[in-house]
Amino acid sequence: MRLWDTQRVEPWSRAAGYTLTLDWTIPKAFGGRFLTKAERVRLKAFERSVRVTNADAVWIEEVVALAHKAAVTWRARGKAA
Question: What are all long-range contacts of 32-35, with beta carbons under 8 Å and residues at least 24 apart?
Answer without folding.
Answer: 32/70, 32/74, 34/66, 34/67, 34/70, 35/63
